[in-house]
Amino acid sequence: MIDKFIVEFDKGLRTLFAPALSSRPHPGKNLDEVTLSDEQKQHALGLMRVNHCGEVCAQALYQGQALTARDPAAREALKEAAHEEVEHLAWTEQRIRELGGRTSVLNPLWYGGSLAIGVAAGLLGDRWNLGFLEETEHQVGAHLDSHLQSLPEEDGKSRAIVTQMRDDELRHADMAHALGAARLPLPVRQGMKLSSRLMTAASYRI
Ligand SMILES: [Fe+2]
Ligand SMILES: [Fe+2]
């Protein structure tokens, strides 16, 4: 158990402080960089910072859940999805750099909170654990759709990343569903929406 915690602690530090790597090619990597107005750039940057922060939270959630999941099939599926989340982290991180910005200073805070939520969800048992995951991925998918409405039309590079992430998140939701996710009660779903709204409003700016 102690070994497990050391491994996970190390993962946490890497999520927060080391550059993430992607095995798949970065979406939009073959697209040319276009000139964006200052306003467009700042807006794209804010949205990509929100997405990066969301991916930091995804790392923590998956980590917390994988620590506590009982069913080996669920644990394996969580690990595989977590690997794709690392790629999302790498893509958003690089895009933020290309746009000339930096990641949110609040990331460690959200990471800690998400880890605690992930562990708690895992302790409730696999059906609730997966239910929480399915709902999270659905909400993130919807959120990414709204970013596709809002990102500058010209910013093909950011759009390609967000599109691929959206597709991956919806696949993660389907995976959780197929593994027997329970449907979360409405107040829990609403609470999750509220907390992600707080997170997005803050990390858009800082
Ligand atoms: Fe993701
Ligand atoms: Fe996901």
From TrEMBL:
GO terms for cellular component: plasma membrane. InterPro entries: COQ7_proteobact (IPR047809), Ferritin-like (IPR012347), Ferritin-like_SF (IPR009078), Ubq_synth_Coq7 (IPR011566). This is 3-demethoxyubiquinol 3-hydroxylase. One of its GO terms (molecular function) is 3-demethoxyubiquinol 3-hydroxylase activity. It comes from Craterilacuibacter sinensis. The gene is coq7. Pathway: Cofactor biosynthesis; ubiquinone biosynthesis. NCBIfam families: DMQ_monoox_COQ7 (NF033656). HAMAP family: COQ7. Fe cation 1 binds at residues 55, 85, 88, 169. It holds the Pfam family COQ7.
